[in-house]
Amino acid sequence: MARHTKVIDVVSDKVNSRRRRSIVVAPDPQVPNRAEPAGLTWDSNLSAHLDRAGKSRMQEAQRCALAIKIGQVQGNYHLQKAVYRQTESASQPSSTVPGLTNGQVSQVQANLTTNPQAAVNTIAKALADKGQVTLSYIEGNTIGYVGDRSRMRPGRYGDTSLTPGTGLPRPCRVIIGPDAVESVSTLYSTIMHEYQHVLQYRTGRTGEEAATELEAYLWEVENLEKTGMWRRVRAMAELPGQLTHWWEELSTNDERERYRTRYKAARETIRRLNERRLEEQSRQQRGRG
Ligand SMILES: [Zn+2]
Fold first, then answer.
1. How far is the CA of 219 from the centre of ligand 1 (A)?
2. Distance from the CA of 216 to the center of ligand 1, in angstroms?
């Protein structure tokens, strides 16, 4: 049982021959993270205090004041504990998208359909805070959401281009389209795919589409667990085709040699995670049946 509130002292003094009692109630300092859920001790504690108060011929008003005081302390305490628990869990890695925290995932989730730009910003900031993305490489320090499909090249989740001007390096314009906001995982993976292109532009690699796309898709496959994309059936169906396509587009054997190990490992990763997803699904179905 949680001893989360105690009457520390009852101070008596005489004022004009009437006894005035002030009761100091404070939360037990040891309890905060471990106490039982709210409500367990409310009735017994309160009635015990009130009984004691009644025996000492306290006035009704004073008894009410005491009840209110205890209520406040317990209420504040439980509220504090609830907020603490929520904050605690919000900073833990998400089980569905381990590259983000629970708090970030729920924030992105909440905005995905109603305010996609805010969803993009949340992920961009989270990745920038972790040092995985440098926003100053991107025009306006912002990855732009474009809801108009006609401004997106067909079949594209996002697009990265160099901003007009001369001299390198210069910022890239990164846009994210409607297909990318179908899930938190898809958005995260797309942002990082486009960011690979940003890094490629930084190093002046602009002409080799096959190699640059292969690299961006390799990032996505190598991070399927971190982004949670391995649970997305659509992504798992599309990624092998993308890998193969860009692999075959590589024009020279030298280029293939450069990526061969990663490419083979990526195909194996997809195979392994497909298996795991199917296992997880059949476990869930058995659980329901
Ligand atoms: Zn790309």
1. 11
2. 6
